[in-house]
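step=encode ok
step=design start
structure_in=
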């Protein structure tokens, strides 16, 4: 099978197309023929030696990638909930070695959900790590409820565009920040207010917030703490961030923490149901063939992508 691996961290030139054997599966795993996969900022950071590279460097050469959709082609003896031919989606072994940049991936069955029939493989792959991050921040941790006033930073990005839709689904009042050119997109997701972060100081435009989702870090944490009401919550998600958000928040009487998304099949099933009902939708802005992984990385690395960047295998759709 074709796979893309790296033997050392660096620029896009370290992403090498190789031929490898199809992986074997354990009793609790399924083998998935990957139709589409999505690229996240953590992929780019890890390729550069940051992100989760430190956790994985002892396993070099690495096959990056975690977000997949595809078809089950083999099933471990202990797996009861999937069968050959099932279309599935999921985030594989994050924050461990996902090995998703490949034509076939061995995946613990507990990390997958059935792909809704009304969405494409590209949309399914896009709605994994980013959507799970939004779910685990807003539902699992912050427990957003009806009437909460929430601020989503980078609302047009991968995590952000899911977070806006999810917060609206939970009947919150949503303020989203992005550049002016993405204002219409953010409002189309259901945001009640848009703030152009380049020309407006968000701390002068909004206040008395119950919750802030911060995908940027640094000064954004300090500035966000100014607009959260006592007892409110800030969750920060940039990978590699230190835990200072907790101490800073405590001084303001605010709950603050950093979360790292975890693979979770039950959460994935909840997201699949929201995709099927149309409550949330993945915005796929660019699609690259597998052999152009370097271009996909360059696009994500630009920091200007709207929604998600997806990579597909050539055999897809034949």
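sequence_out=
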């Amino acid at each position: 099978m074709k796979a893309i691996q790296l033997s050392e961290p660096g620029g896009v030139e370290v992403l090498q197309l190789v031929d490898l054997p199809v992986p074997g599966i354990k009793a609790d795993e399924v083998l998935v023929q990957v139709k589409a996969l999505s690229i996240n900022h953590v992929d780019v950071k890890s390729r550069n030696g940051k992100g989760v590279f430190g956790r994985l460097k002892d396993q070099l050469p690495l096959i990056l990638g975690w977000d997949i959709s595809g078809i089950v082609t083999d099933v471990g003896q202990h797996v009861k909930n999937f069968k050959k031919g099932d279309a599935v989606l999921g985030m594989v072994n994050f924050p461990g070695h996902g090995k998703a940049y490949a034509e076939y991936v061995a995946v613990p069955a507990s990390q997958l959900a059935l792909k809704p029939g009304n969405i494409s493989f590209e949309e399914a792959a896009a709605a994994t790590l980013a959507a799970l991050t939004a779910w685990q921040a807003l539902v699992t941790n912050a427990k957003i409820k009806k009437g909460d006033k929430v601020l989503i930073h980078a609302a047009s990005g991968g995590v952000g565009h899911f977070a806006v839709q999810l917060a609206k689904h939970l009947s919150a009042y949503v303020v989203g920040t992005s550049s002016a050119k993405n204002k219409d997109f953010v409002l189309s997701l259901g945001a009640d207010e848009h703030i152009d972060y380049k020309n407006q100081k968000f701390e002068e435009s909004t206040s008395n917030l119950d919750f802030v989702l911060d995908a940027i870090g640094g000064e954004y944490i300090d500035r966000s703490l100014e607009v959260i009401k006592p007892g409110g919550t800030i969750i920060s998600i940039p990978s590699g961030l230190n835990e200072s958000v907790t101490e800073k928040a405590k001084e303001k009487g605010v709950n603050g923490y950093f979360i790292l998304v975890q693979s979770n099949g039950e959460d994935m099933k909840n997201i699949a149901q929201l995709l099927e009902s149309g409550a949330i939708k993945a915005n796929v802005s660019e699609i690259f063939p597998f052999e152009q992984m370097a271009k996909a990385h360059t696009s994500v690395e630009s920091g200007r992508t709207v929604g998600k960047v997806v990579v597909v295998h050539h055999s897809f759709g034949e």
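step=design ok
step=annotate ok -> The chain is about 30% helix and 25% strand.
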